[in-house]
Amino acid sequence: MGADSGNGVRQVPTFCPLCVSKCGAIATIKDGTFVSLAPDPSHPTGQALCIKGKAAPEVVNHRDRLRYPLKRTTPKGAADPGWQRIGWDEALDTIAARVAAAAGEHGPESVVFASASPSTSAMSDSIDWLNRLRRAVGSPNFAVYMELCGWGRMLAPMFTFGAPVPGAYLPDLDNAGCILFWGYNPSVARLAHATATAAALRRGAKLVVVDPRRAGLASKAAHWLRVRPGTDAALAMAMTQVMIERGWYDEDFVRRWTNAPLLVRRDTGRLLRGNEVFAEGDPAHYVAWDGQVAQPVAYDPATGQYDTDESRLALRPHLIWGCCGSQDPA
Ligand code: SF4
After folding, report:
1. Burial class (CB in 10 A: 0-12, 13-18, 19+), 233
2. Which H or E element spans position 210?
3. Where are the beta strands (DSSP E) in 5-81?
4. For residue 289, what are the β-bridge partners?
5. Does the domain spanning 9-61 belong to CATH 1.10.3720.10?
6. How far apart are the CA of 94 and the centre of ligand 1, in A?
7. Where are the domains of the chain?
8. Per-residue pLDDT tens for 156-208?
9. Which residues contact ligand 1 via a Cβ below 6 A?
10. What is the CATH number of domain 178-244?
């Protein structure tokens, strides 16, 4: 806690919890009242605050802010809910008893937990605890809304790394030589990313922005790719094509962590199955090409194992396995 400077004013290093950006900040407390929030440039995410962060004292001090648990005393639908202030212990006991009763009578699956989005609310700091409580109750149900950017941020790591990356992570913008924003405007969505990107541009990094609008840092981008809304996939496919043609990918990684080695049927466009190639083949298995011995090999998705060493898998086959076992020059 910051020391009193002698006139009843204290400066307290903190961070703004109002979204996942968690911008480092200095809170000014005057005579015990929180009066202002300012950026803390000594903090990794403290180069700037958005208008919401600057308005934090209004949120904290607003006369309508809910500061205590309230209990409804009239039936739902009544014109006046009859809110009555209760203590925290009574509130917790009431909620725990209701949850335990529902779980006991109908099973824990009957209980649904719900939350504001952690990306854009103060739930950012509490969401993990809420999930721990949900798991302790045994409920699989969690209702949470998510912003458009959240789907990409959460699901892209799941597809890329096999697991979600916690929302508070910061890409390595300090060391990035090229930064790609795809439908992302951190100037309004995540200030810490915007300020870190501006610093990266000052030291010479290149920025590419894919966005129908020239929004935020798009005006400073080396390339602003103004796609028509809904055509992102075409751009992504085109970029992927160029990367494949020019070999701009890590072959070992692609063999080990993607489905690129798996063969696709020409006639159906679907992945070739083990029973379509091997006499005793398993329909649950897929098929790749062992480039060293020029033969098909099975892949078991349940174990993630090929019937050969992964380093031998062909990524650019000169032979493609057609349907029903025929070999067909590509
Ligand atoms: S971007 Fe704004 S709301 Fe989010 S943490 Fe920073 S100052 Fe707070």
Report:
1. exposed
2. strand 206-210
3. 9-15, 24-30, 33-39, 70-71
4. 296
5. no
6. 34
7. 9-61, 85-169, 178-244, 251-329
8. 777 777 776 655 556 788 899 999 999 889 888 788 889 999 999 999 999 99
9. 16, 18-19, 21-23, 49-50, 52-53, 191
10. 3.40.228.10
